[in-house]
Amino acid sequence: MQIALLQHKLDRLRALLFEMDSVLVAYSGGIDSTFVLKVAHEQLHERAVGITAVSPTFPLIELETAKRVAQEIGARHEIVQTDQLEIPEFTKNDAARCFHCKTDLYQLLGTLRQARAAACMVDGTNLDDLGDDRPGIKAARDWGVRSPLVEAELSKTDIRILARDLGLSNWDKPAAACLSSRIPRGITITREKLSRVEEAEAVLHREGLRHFRVRDHGEIARIEVAKDEMLQLMETERRTRVGTRLKELGFRFVTVDLEGYRPGGVSLG
Fold it and tell me: What pLDDT score does 269 carry?
């Protein structure tokens, strides 16, 4: 029964994308937008294009993943530049930060859609996302962006199962979020803060950890790591390496949050 239901949802997604005729996919390299790009490419071939917007809030490691996976799919992939740090409403980092970030993205996609005469803009929002406080979803609706995963009633679990079955190499990729989410709300976002967070998280990535965040609290780096990886982080030599490297980046104190990694968590001021 579960297999039949998943197949029905996949068929619905395929039909939705085929009916759109041509699409620009807001493609970050995360599993949700990757899955949309994969199915869109299957249905529309050259009329499906993945668009990755690169800015100081987008980690380089995520860009490398996006390029690699798009190449594996065989889909058209374009990289465009933007810079949310030029938007004062974004850098002040209040509750509307994500709205301003996504507005910048979808405005850019809208310009590209017109230039390419594409019929639709689509994103990777899935059914589970609707239960969260997501200002970015409002921005998508304001700009006429469709969410085919929602329309096909696909959940995050559904997507991972189907992505694995379709052979996507990133089917189990941990969730990612823009680097600005590591800075406590109300603290101005700067290029220097974003760069320091990116470098700090690269340290943990090189140590073999998968589910983590480094929250920037000025002098304090607060590490969130999955509970099943906490012992790995706390191994003496690894803990020493991580602490030393993060202090070299300018943090005075390096702490580990005992509550562990919380996807979608908001930094506390």
Answer: 42
